[in-house]
Hints:
about 30% helix, globular, NTF2-like_dom_sf
Amino acid sequence: MQTLNERVQALNTLVAQFRYPEAFDQFYHxxxxxxxxxxxxxxxxxxxxxxxxxxxxxxxNQSAExxxxxxxxxxxxxxxxxDFTHKDWGRRHYTQITxxxxxxxxxxxxxxxxxxx
Length: 117
């Protein structure tokens, strides 16, 4: 069994490559609660899969650079620098902080913090 540090590292490797379907299969719990900033949560992994599929079909020129990771007490915090072009939003270049709570080796709660303007 991998340690939490190893699982977080493996997850972040997939995220940096925009390999979200694999990340979901390996590291996310079916009852995931996912928050985008202060919005109401997406409930369940299937809702997250559908939202991500829509997002990935809408972006080009994407990159994700992992800047910092903290892992402690079944929680991980990752700082990302994202850069992409979205068909509706145009070019986006921003820093995002993702906080994840883990249970039994899976992410059960996730919140993304980033500027929206």
